[in-house]
Amino acid sequence: MQTPTTVELKRDCEAVEIPAGNPARLPAGTIVDITQTLGGTYTVRAAGGLFRIASQDADALGLQADSTRSAGRSESAAALTTAEDLEQQVWDTLKSCYDPEIPVNVVDLGLIYDLRVEPTTPGCYKVGVKMTLTAPGCGMGTVIAGDARQKLSFLPGVEEADVEIVWDPPWHQSMITAEGRRILGLE
Predict the structure, then answer these.
(1) Predicted structure pTM score
(2) FRET label pair with 13: which of 50, 59, 131, 179, CA 20 to 30 Å apart?
(3) Is the dihedral of CA 19, 161, 80, 114 positive or negative?
(4) How many Å apart are CA 8 and CA 54, to the nearest integer?
(5) CATH architecture of the domain covering 71-184
(6) Is pLDDT above 50 for 70?
């Protein structure tokens, strides 16, 4: 866990209320505690609640946005020779997606149930991911899935990325990888 950093918002910024998933606007001058900075997004505590702030609004926190998020799009799809190469990049990319309340990526939390890479045209692929959440009532599901979809769409050779939230089988703690358990102190 990281130590929270207190900052004053430099400008108004869009946010998502955690865990409800409702859009919110935090005004300039609001004092926030940055509690998590993983996967290019920021979790902040403000006004008695938690909020997720996207990478493009890092400047509101007085930080520099993560410029690596869209770097892959400009690369040539020809750099990928096989679906297996892309599949490894997809797994690595999913490891950069986090639940804003838990400092473990969605892969190590055991939330990814299925991953498919299918060729569409020469050098181009469709990526399909089935994932779940730690709790069915989590309002952040569409936000987390959207973050994954956006990051996957930036990979070279990805023509289409689909991330579907599923509930079967129900998630439980035994699905957390050894690395996730270590981070959470469950070992």
Answers:
(1) 0.82
(2) 131
(3) positive
(4) 16
(5) 2-Layer Sandwich (3.30)
(6) no
